[in-house]
Design a protein that fits this description.
Oligomer: single chain
CATH architecture: Orthogonal Bundle
Number of helices: 11
Distance between the termini: 49 Å
Low-confidence stretches: none
CATH topology: MetI-like fold
Mean pLDDT: 83
Number of domains: 1
Shape: globular
CATH class: Mainly Alpha
CATH superfamily: MetI-like
Length: 264
């Protein structure tokens, strides 16, 4: 079709989209008071804050390490429970496995609720329910992981090779046998990757949960900041970074062993 004969909107579609993008970003930037000037003016304050953290104070290192271990325990238990619950539910949320629309939408809605509410909010809810300590943190992480991994697991299941499933079903296999022999082998690497990723993510999330009384090293970080113990804040941050790096290396090793990722 001749360019001049095209409808007005189609001729200037790119311009209209560009204008919409500019308007959306302008609206977002002004609504959040985002300002390069304010950021530049705040740099001296940040430099002063960082300078006051040095040198780190290791006098309470033992206690901080114990709290960091508690945070790691929260992440491990929360990730494991969330993955174990999300795994069977994810098959009910996969269109190619569950043809019942009612259960499909119910489970997807459950995942949306669990995932849509931040871990911090879940932490506040469970602290009010079972009190202070690491247990409400575990419950908060588990709930959020159910929603997140449930969605990722179900979407992975929906991408499996349908021909393999048909071939297995044609042998007279049951649905359970089809899942174990036809689907799990195909999605196992993705399941492991997602679970390990959320283990690392949950360690960081568990740290934040300490700010609402859900135990772990986050409570020590909040206390040190409130008492203006900048040297202890740096010590806690160092511990957090080291533990996240360690979890990342361990996760990479497990992926290499289980998924058999080759070094380039």
């Amino acid at each position: 079709m001749n360019e001049r004969n095209k409808p007005f909107f189609k001729r200037y579609k790119g311009i209209f989209i560009g204008i919409i993008v500019v308007v959306v970003y302008y609206w977002a930037l002004t609504g959040t008071n985002t300002s390069a000037t304010a950021f530049a003016e705040g740099i001296p304050n940040m430099i002063d804050f960082v300078q006051r953290m040095f040198p780190p104070d290791f006098s309470n290192l033992g206690m901080f390490l114990l709290k960091a271990v508690e945070t790691l325990q929260m992440a491990i238990v929360g990730s494991t429970l969330g993955a174990l619950i999300a795994l069977p539910l994810s098959f009910l949320a996969a269109r190619n496995i569950n043809r019942n629309k009612i259960t499909y939408h119910l489970v997807r809605t459950l995942f949306d609720i669990c995932r849509g509410i931040n871990e911090l909010v879940w932490g506040l809810i469970f602290v009010s329910m079972v009190g202070l300590g690491p247990f409400p943190g575990v419950l908060a992480l588990t709930t959020h992981v159910i929603g997140a991994l449930g969605r990722y697991f179900s979407e992975s299941i929906e991408t499996v090779d349908s021909e393999v499933i048909k071939a297995i079903m044609s042998t007279g296999a049951t649905k359970i046998q089809m899942i174990m022999r036809g689907i799990i082998p195909q999605v196992k690497p993705l399941f492991i990757n997602y679970t390990l990723y959320y283990l690392e993510n949950n360690f960081r999330a568990a740290t934040v949960l300490g700010l609402v009384g859900a135990g772990g090293i986050g409570m020590e970080l909040l206390t040190s900041m409130r008492l203006f113990r900048s040297h202890e804040v740096l010590t806690i941050l160092i511990i957090m970074v080291v533990m996240v790096a360690a979890i990342d290396r361990i996760s990479a090793y497990i992926r290499k062993r289980v998924v058999q990722v080759e070094n380039i």
